[in-house]
Amino acid sequence: MAAKTTDVQILDARVWFEPVAFRMPLKFGGRVVDRTDLINARVTVETRDGRTASGCGSMPIGNVWAWPSKVVDADDAERAMRKYAQAAADLFASCPDFGHPLELQYTIGAEFQHLAERTARDLELAEALPHLAQLVAVSPIDAALHDAYGRVHKRSSFDVLSAEFCNVDLSEFLDEQFAGEYADRYTRREPAPRLPLYHLVGALDPLTDAEAKGLPDDGLPHVLGDWIRSDGLTHLKIKLSGEDLCWDVDRVVSVEDVTAPIQKERKQDHWFYSCDFNEKCGSADYVLEFLQRVQEQRPAAFGRIQYIEQPTSRDLKAASAVSMHEVAKRKPVVIDEALVDYEALLCCRELGYSGVALKACKGQSESLLAAAAAQKFGMFLCVQDLTCPGASWLHSCSLAARIPGIAAVEGNARQYCPTAGTRWARLYPGLFEISDGTVETGRLSEHGLGFHTSGIASGADVDEPSEEI
């Protein structure tokens, strides 16, 4: 690998954890979550000429989503991901190489599976961390590395992705189709000014006042209609069961029946739904029947469905892997849980998936590579989150704002754990105080990941932006 003066070496990397309580439970994929821990990370880098800077990253641990194991319970999975994140930080800190963050992450990543197996042995678990759980645990460290690299060069992390900074092109990480291309080709030089916000309608979320029982009196909306009026929502993500066709159809019909009169009252003619089955559908026929019934019962609701999200198992190599070709003829079908690397993306395309759901929780590096591939292949693009509060929400928005063609960005921490973002809302109110159904992503133009990350490092209230961390 050729050496550049812009290369950095990692001097130090560390992680710590921050508990986050939910104001109300979130149900998805048959599982209920009412709390999480944030993995916070700090990475310090040094250039070849001795300049140093630190960057930070933050992401929910997300074990229930990233590692839904049949042989490792949720508590043990969470414990393993915490231990893995700490060991991964040591791995990053011990890397002797100089390079660009994409290159350093790629080099260090060769040890991730070995580290997962060692973690499982140390904790006497029946299985090692799967690929997705590894990505989530490492994602705040990867984010902190990109943040530090941008800060040491006093540039946005999205503006240091060209041949001027990278030693190798994208073919090193993807394949020969990307020879001579760099990630700057697939990212914006300025963030999109605003992006539509996808609001989550969880399986336990009340749609009407009659269903709203036992919810906290904290001044926030309780039912869907109040959320729409309060935040001016135009994009609703509906969690479905994938195992009860009548319930799934009725849920979309109910959402439409609640939403339509309120949007008419607001003089809003266009709004959208996405349908998330969290891998629970047993076949493509289930999805096709679901779409057919929705179309028959509420044609307008069918027309509002913007995309279907990962309806069947994330195990793409199983003999039972389901083809999505027929479903994709009716609506875009996006890959989510199954998207862990480029090989998985190619496999999903062969199975008929027509879109990609990017997530900052899979890592800044992996997200940039997936975004490049999705754009080259003309796939539908959206950005979703992992109920990301505070800085992790800002990171997700920054990623979405820099990728061309993003339809919308999902953000549901304001619904389930809003207090975790309080200190950040003072600096970036347009990303937390929603009134027109969009988030003000144009503010995310600072050095590094695009926002003031020192609050992650201190855990204290954030005052004024500063280049020092």
Strand proportion, as a percent range, falls in: 15-25%
Give the uncertain stretches in residue-range form. 459-469
Q: What is the general shape?
A: globular
Highest-level CATH class of the largest domain: Alpha Beta
How confident overall, as mean pLDDT?
Answer: 94
Number of domains: 2
H/I helix tally = 16
Q: Report the CATH superfamily of the largest domain.
A: Enolase-like C-terminal domain
Question: Structural class of the secondary elements?
Answer: alpha/beta
Intertermini distance = 31 Å
Biggest beta sheet summary: 8 strands, parallel, barrel
Report helical residue fraction.
25-40%
CATH topology of the largest domain: TIM Barrel
Q: State the strand order across the main sheet.
A: 5-6-7-8-9-10-11-12
Cα-based radius of gyration, to the nearest Å = 21 Å
**Number of beta-strand segments:** 13
Q: What are the key terms here?
A:
alpha/beta; eight-stranded parallel barrel; 36% helix; Enolase-like, domain 1; 2 domains; four-stranded antiparallel sheet; 469 residues; 16 helices; TIM Barrel; disordered C terminus
Describe the structure.
This protein is of the alpha/beta class and 469 residues long. It folds into 2 domains: 8-174, Enolase-like, domain 1, CATH 3.30.390; 195-458, Alpha-Beta Barrel (TIM Barrel), CATH 3.20.20. 36% of the residues lie in helices and 19% in strands. The strands form 2 sheets. Strands 5-6-7-8-9-10-11-12 form an 8-stranded parallel β-barrel. β2 (31-47) and β3 (52-60) form a beta hairpin. α7 crosses α8 (284-297). The longest helix has 22 residues, at 131-152.
